[in-house]
Amino acid sequence: MVKSFNQMYREYVASCDTEYEAMYFNDTIITSSEFRKRVEEIAKHLIVLGVRQGSGVGYTLNNNTDIIPLFIAIAKLGAYAVPQFAGIPAIARVTLFKQAKVCLIVTNESMVEGLEKAADKIGTSFAYAVVEDSSTYKTIYGQPEEDVDLEQYKISGEEAELPLMIASSSGTTGIPKMVCMTQNNVGSEMIVSKNMMEESQQIRLANRCSMAFPFSTSVMLVLCGMVLQKRSIVFSDDITPQNFLKDIERRKSQSITCPPAYFESLLLLKDTNTYDLSSVTEVGAGMDFCSPACLKRLRSMFPNLQVYSNGYGLVETCNVYMHTAVDITGEEIKDTAKLTLAKDADNIIEVRNEEGEVVSVGEVGELYVKGPNVVKGYMSAPDTVMEAFQDGWLKTGDIARKESEACVTLLGRRKYFIKRGGKSISPIVVQTQINKTEGINASGVVGVPHPLFGEMIWAFVVKDQDSLVSLKDIKKKCKEELPYYMLPDQVTFIESIPKNPGVGKVDYETLRKMAKEHLDKLGIN
């Protein structure tokens, strides 16, 4: 049964009768009772600062111990949060804060001046509070000086449909737009988090997780889910690879969760053998998929690695609604993109063809989802964008093969599928096969216009250091499992695969541009 986020937090508080270590941040250890106390302190600060039920609170912060308690305090008051990654330009952050009608921005002292200047450029202003002990700005640091009785500020009316988080998305249409997540939407996401952890723990037991993420909307929801399931979070304001490995050794973390691009940075380190990483049994990817080739390389770094886990979702689904947990101890790693619908969250999925008909098992189509995770639509969006929502169903824009009523294999974004000779080809499938070639580090595959085929398959490939792998080796490996029409027409060796900023997904648009520039130089267009 889906519950509001606040109800789930109240149940967490009622069940916390032990002093387990909820968070490890740098050299600080925060117990469950200290965590709950901090939520109450921040809620009182917010009241003093004028936050009430229905208020919007924006925040943009470097990693610190207040990030999760701040979100829960906002929820506790019936207000809504507007989180923004600190790496985004200030002008973009304040523009979203303005659109979301926030009454207060909580940030680091070092960011206030830049935010104020950016706000002035767009003709607006905000109240600010900082997390540090400050004599210059209002603060949420420590205990509030003013005595506040939280019982006087209980939520009135129905809690379930109160706005809880406003976030920006461009995933399904490529057009930036805002979504509003309700208390029930996020409560459903907490059920998904619980299910993910339970499924993964059937293979291993891991209660301490090291994370290396830049702060973002989806990461906030993941962190809240971990807290409510009483898993200990290990994180830092220093997310350099060296410090990350140092923290794993120091805290004896059993699992790690990072964007796949971050794993690549770990693998580039030369001195990994100086750290004791034997405690790690699970690796979890976030915001993108991790290739089997990368997982095999990670096994050499983490000698007791057993499980790869991942979740799939969109901002429109309040993050994750499907997940996977795969045993990766064998010689061949399979099914890393096979995802199962999370239990108990009451979501349902369908795979539909271009005529909108539900396909049979084994067939390919576009993935649709419906349920408590799914937001009602976009805020102030044109009708053409709102078409992504149809009778409660979200048209995800992702192509998948139907494995069962609750399971699919994700094949990639519709807009990046390659149309060659009347066939639709998933770049992910081709990339996965190329990456199985010995001596290949990574690849990116795109479709490029071709006068005969419609599009040709162009693969950009990165070799392992000192590798002598050849074009012949790649084509031989591809022929082992791929049909003739999925074989690369062109292979170009490059130094690195271009990635999008943030979590580091493959930048397919740049790869297409690189291919076009190459053709232009040859006079082929």
Description:
The chain has 525 residues and is of the alpha/beta class. The chain contains 14 helices and 26 strands. It has helices at residues 5-15, 32-48, 67-76, 90-99, 112-121, 183-201, 217-228, 241-251, 260-267, 292-301, 383-386, 427-434, 471-481, 508-521; strands at 21-25, 28-31, 56-60, 80-83, 104-107, 127-130, 163-169, 177-182, 208-211, 232-235, 255-258, 282-285, 307-314, 319-327, 338-341, 348-352, 364-370, 378-379, 389-390, 393-404, 407-413, 418-420, 423-425, 440-450, 454-463, 490-493. The strands form 5 sheets. Strands 1, 2, 9, 10, 11, 12, 13, 14, 15, 16, 17, 19, 20 and 21 form a 14-stranded mixed sheet that branches. The chain has a 4-stranded parallel sheet with strand order 4-3-5-6, with helices on both faces. Strands 7-8-18 form a 3-stranded antiparallel sheet. Strand 5 (104-107), helix 5 (112-121) and strand 6 (127-130) form a beta-alpha-beta unit. Helix 2 (32-48) crosses helix 3, helix 4 packs across helix 5 and helix 6 (183-201) packs across helix 7. The longest helix is centred in the middle third of the chain and has 19 residues, at 183-201. It is globular, with a radius of gyration of 24 Å. It starts with a helix and ends with a helix. The model has no long low-confidence stretch (mean pLDDT 88).
